[in-house]
Each structure stands twice: as C-alpha cells, then as structure tokens.
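Quick one - first record:
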Amino acid sequence: MEFCPVKAIAFNDTVNGQWFLSDTRFGPMVHAKLGIAEENSGKLVTLIRRKAKEIAEERKLDLVIVDGSPGIGCPVIASITGADLVLIVTEPTLSGRHDLGRVADLAADFGIKTLLCINKADINPEMTAQISEEARKRGVSVVGEIPYDDAFTKAQIMKATVAEYTGVDLSDRMIALARHRSIAGGTFEVADASALPFADGRFDVVSAITVLEFTAGPVQVVAEMARCARTTGGLLLVGALNSLSACNRAKQRNAASMYARANSFSPDDLMQLLLPFGKPTVIVAGFVPRRDSLVWASPLLERMGRLTGNTHGAFLAAQVTL
C-alpha cells in the first residue's frame, strides 16, 4: 500500500501477537496471544477461524465454537460471519441490556439465528425480566439463566469446568472401563462410598443412583455424601429402586437375583434417610406394564402414575439441598 509517492510515510508489517494450537481433553483449541498494548482486529479473528476450520475438516469434526469479544466491532463481526448460530451472553445491567440490543441487531443484519443466555441472572431479577422481555420482542429465545455462584471461581482455581465430575466405584474393573471410555469432564477413582477420599465440601452436587441398595450402611453413605457436598446450597441426588413396586419385589424374591440381598426403600424410607440433611423431595417414577406386550403404554402409565400420586412405581428419585 502506498501512502506517499516520495516515501515520506512507511507502511511496514508488524507482529501484533502469535496464534497457537492446543490440545485439550475436550478437543483442539485454536487461540492467540496479543503483544503488549497491541489491538485486536478482525484480521486476527479471521485467521484463527480459518485455522480452526482447517483443523475441523482435517479431523472430521462437525462443530466449531468461536468465542467472540464484547461489543459490535471488527472482531465481533469477524467472529459471527458465516456462523450458523449466535449465542449472546449478557448480564442484568443497563449496559448489558444496551449491548444486547446492538449485538442482536448485528446478528439480525447477517440473518443468523440468535439465542440469549443471561449470566449472574439473580443479582438483578428486575433487569433480568426486562432483558428477557426485550429478547422475546426481538424473537430471540432465552435458553438459560446462570446464577451468581462461587462454584465458577472454584472451578477456575481447580483448572476445571463447572460441570466436571468424579465417579467412584469399588470395582477396579468398572473404574478401568470408565477411564477407557475417556468421558469428557470426568475423572474416576476406586473408592468406598462409606468412606469417600474427598475433602469436606469438595463438590456442588453428590449423587448416588442405585447405590444405596448395595451398601452395608446406607445411613453412613448418605452422611459421607453430605460431608463431601458444600454446606450451603450443596445438592444430594439419590436414585433407588422402590420396595413398593411389584416388579422390584419379584426381583427380590428370586434367590438367584442380585437384588435378593439388596436393601429396599419405600418413598417414606428414602424421605427419612435424607431428612437429617434438609427438606427432601421424593418422586416416584418408572410405572411400567407387567406384560411386555404392553410396553407401548409406558408413557401413558408414567403420566397417570404421576398425576394420581401412585407410590408403586419402580424407581425413586430424591433430592435435598443442604
């Protein structure tokens, strides 16, 4: 590019930063690092997107997620150009509401379907409601509201995502199988549910699905679950087979069945088991027909069972907030 015929102005190439390709347990990530006091630009974003597309095609990956910057400047325009979907993340503030409108208009100009997520939605419920209403008028669906929670800070300190989890089992073989599957976000350890090897308050949610039936001391296991959950707002989830179910009683009567020596729980039993840790909610589900030929009626039976308050479904689901 020539600015001055007598070369009084020079237009030299400069290095603003570097781009990188990193491998994560969730897949490849293409990112960049700007130099000190260097400005971002649409050209840099376009370069990153092009490299990401090349890698996705090479590895036969069908999804590319682009994390755009705030505002509606060149980097944002470069981020959404050619996108199939735009997810706007805003906060319930006046500036957040204003910026939401600008980005929504930009996406609309590009003809791209747009969704909205409101972060820290509970810090200003009134503004959250106003933003949701404005989004509705624009035809933008609100797909999520994320509360303000220190779990996000904890996750950053742990170098983990909020949704990461740890699975435990007494069996070395089961843990080896789980590790072999390389489930994203999951780590797995051999451990006894009655003496979990985790610090107090380590998890936001602790769950046990069809576990209590096969433990020597269900009361101790639930106590350990509560110990490992955070003391304020931690959640315990329990799934168990219902002892009032005719199907489950038949299993227990079969001496050769693995359920013959299993613990059994009625809805009241499960309620009492969790009551020391908060106010439990117990749901009865799994209303299945006794004949295989009537399996097609399962959804109808499930709905009828829930509506009538039937307590004889095959499965119990319970939760309690600490």
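second record:
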Amino acid sequence: MNKKKEFFSKNNFRIGGHRGSPKKFRENSIKSFYRAIDDGASFIELDLRLTSDSRIVINHDDNINNLKIKETDYKTLFSQNSELLLFETVINDIMPHIFLDIEIKTDDAAVPAVKMLKDKIREDQFIITSFLESVIQAVSSENDKITTGLLIEEYPETSLKELMSRNKASYILPWDKITDTKMLNEAFSENIPLIIWTVDEIQRAEFLTNQPAVRAIISNVPEKMIFLQK
C-alpha cells in the first residue's frame, strides 16, 4: 500500500474529532483538542486561515466578532477571542500527540502552511484537506509527499475518480448528508477511500463502519464513537 495512505487503512477504522471535542469545549481551542485526545479520538480535524499580518490561525469562520480574519492582524483578533490558536502552537503542542486533519480554508494559507510544516514533522503525521481544488493542487505542487484530501458538500457532477485524478488527492471527504449508496458503491468499485464528515448518530456511524470504501468518520462527539475504532 502507498505509504501516504497507511494511517487511514482498510484494517484501521478511524474516528476523528471535528475541531476537537466541540460539544465539551470551544471548537478549535487547545482545551477542545486535548479533550478529543483524552476521549480516544485517533485524529483531530482543524481549520486554518491567514491573518493580515501573515499569521496562520485556527478558526473555522472567516471572521471573529465581525472582524474579517484576512483583513485583521493577529493581536486584534486575539483580543476578541483569547482562545484563538496559532498554527505553530498546534504543531508544537498538539501534533506530537495525535494525527491531524488540517483543513485549509483559503488559497493564501496553503503555501505558508506547507512551509511551516516542512522539516518540523513527518508527512505521515497529518493530512491536508480543503474544499478548494486550488489549495489541494498548490499543496501537491509545493510538496508532493503530503497526503491530501478533497472535501465535497454537494454531489459532484463528475466522477469521484476524476476528482481524485485531477487533484492528485489521496482521499475524498464527502459530507455525510450527500453520502448515499450510489456514492459508497462508486467509491468501492473505483477503490477510492472516503473520510465522512460530520457523523454524530451512532446508528449511522455503525453503518458507515461496515462500508468497505470508508476509512474514517469525523464527529462532533468522538467520545461516543471510539468503540467503532479498529
């Protein structure tokens, strides 16, 4: 098997904490990440954005209290959210303890993130994902050893195989709401590994665990799902 795919293998079903453990602590915060680790999640998903002074921060939305992140410096943003994390803090404090699913939200954060990761951690300690094909392509161009995954929230007009091929992605990450039997069968027949988000119902999670194309799920309640890990 390609070494880039070993973490999400057929024999090791994984449960990821969506922005940590957001039902217990503020999402994308250090407390949320550590709680997901303590709860037994095998990986954590988090979101990267770039500030106006070129700091990479962990935040899902494009603003904090109506201040646009890309137009605001880190110090000002931190004054609005004292739990706002820098990516460098995550690399130093969180990444040594758990695998990371690093979602890059904007094009401008792609290359800086890859450069920050270079020489600090091994490529097999994380995956970079994005909804933006341009981000996935930029990451692969910067470092083709990095595992990448394309997020989708609408049923694709093209085949999953075509999406994988044109982006040189290792995984497709579909929203659970669009992940139907047709997609699961297509992924299985084309040998396309899937990571499904966001799955919070145990019955649904159990069903996905038994789908051969599904390698992992991402959940807001990872502590309820860890019994499914293999």
